């Protein structure tokens, strides 16, 4: 819960226009909005006191940055007798791309979903307007700060090659507010290593499983999860397109198993064959 201005113990700062802020971890908190006709809350404000609008009898238009939550904004409005016109931004206030970036976008490469990359495919320049789940290709090293302005998504996968943990605050991409943007997953390893620690014996209830000849696969046939107790082949050929063979996938096999794998396999887990062993043949 957000404190009222009377409860705050953090360092208080007052601007020349009468705006009052509290210095809190990672930024500032809006303690008191000045009693003016138009006010724009600064973008480094990410919290708002419940009584921040108390006494704002002249306020007509209020701009609120995207990183202030809807909950705290609504609570603050409850304390405001004169309801202003509120513009709760979904992205940064200054969301205009430079002329140079617009030229790069015009000359860039676009994939099937409408995401635009630089010609060398190392920079994501602009995202598609609406996407459910999207995997930014491995090898992309940079996401332009305003690439996702106007875009909404449910799940976004960012490859380890982007290294967002090393990006400065000024260059960090704006993915949008919680009202338009979904989950952002930052990978610290290649996508293909998703299942290197997955124990295939512990996920028999996974509803997306496909079973063929007593061998279980993920719903997209990219992961070989394991076998059931009825598997008793003398050798087994993994279908082309499988990328990961999970830990202990053939641990139930009662004898030495020659395993023929396609070139699509990128990761082979630990103890794949169990106590009876096996051999891998690359076709």
Task: Describe the 3D structure.
By secondary structure, this protein is mainly beta. 6% of the residues lie in helices and 30% in strands. It contains 2 helices and 22 strands. The protein has helices spanning 70-78, 99-107; strands at residues 11-14, 20-24, 27-32, 38-40, 45-48, 61-64, 85-88, 109-110, 116-117, 123-126, 130-135, 142-143, 152-158, 183-186, 210-212, 215-217, 223-227, 236-237, 244-245, 257-261, 267-268, 278-282. It has a 5-stranded mixed β-sheet with strand order 15-16-17-19-21, with no helix packed on it. The longest helix has 9 residues, at 70-78. The termini are far apart. 27% of the residues are buried. The model is unreliable at 196-207 (pLDDT under 50).
Give the percentage of residues in beta strands.
25-35%
- What is the radius of gyration computed over CA atoms, rounded to a whole number of angstroms? 27 Å
Structural class: mainly beta
User: What is the overall shape?
Assistant: elongated
The helix tally amounts to 2
Q: Say what oligomer this is.
A: single chain
Average pLDDT number: 85
Largest sheet: 5 strands, mixed
What order do the helices and strands follow? EEEEEEHEHEEEEEEEEEEEEEEE
* Amino-to-carboxy terminus distance: 60 Å
- Give the % helix: under 10%
The main sheet orders its strands as: 15-16-17-19-21
Instruction: Flag low-confidence runs.
Output: 196-207
Tell me the number of strands: 22
Question: Tags for this entry?
Answer:
single chain; mainly beta; five-stranded mixed beta sheet; four-stranded mixed beta sheet; 6% helix; 30% strand; elongated
């Amino acid at each position: 819960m957000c404190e009222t201005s009377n409860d705050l113990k953090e360092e208080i700062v007052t601007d020349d226009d009468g705006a009052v802020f509290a210095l809190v971890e990672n930024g500032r908190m809006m303690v008191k909005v000045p009693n003016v006709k138009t006010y724009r809350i600064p973008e480094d404000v990410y919290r708002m006191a419940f009584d921040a609008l108390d006494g704002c009898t002249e306020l007509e238009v209020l701009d609120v940055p995207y990183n202030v939550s809807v909950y705290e904004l609504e609570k603050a409005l409850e304390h405001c007798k004169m309801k202003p016109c509120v513009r709760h931004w979904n992205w940064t206030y200054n969301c205009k791309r430079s002329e140079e970036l617009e030229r790069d976008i015009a000359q860039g490469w676009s994939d099937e979903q409408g995401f635009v990359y630089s010609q060398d495919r190392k920079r994501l320049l602009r995202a598609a307007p609406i996407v459910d789940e999207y995997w930014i290709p491995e090898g992309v090293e940079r996401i332009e700060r305003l690439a996702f302005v106007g875009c909404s998504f449910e799940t976004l996968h960012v490859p380890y090659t982007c290294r967002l943990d090393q990006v400065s605050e000024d260059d960090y991409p704006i993915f949008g507010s919680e009202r338009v943007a979904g989950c952002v997953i930052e990978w610290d390893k290649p996508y293909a290593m998703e299942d290197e620690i997955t124990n295939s014996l512990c996920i028999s209830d996974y509803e997306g499983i496909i079973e063929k000849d007593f061998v279980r696969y993920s719903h997209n046939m990219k992961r070989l999860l394991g076998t059931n107790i009825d598997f008793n082949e003398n050798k087994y050929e993994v279908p082309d397109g499988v990328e990961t063979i999970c830990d202990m996938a053939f641990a139930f096999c009662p004898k030495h198993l020659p395993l023929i794998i396609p070139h699509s396999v990128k990761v082979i887990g630990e103890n794949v064959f169990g106590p009876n062993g096996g051999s891998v043949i690359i076709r």
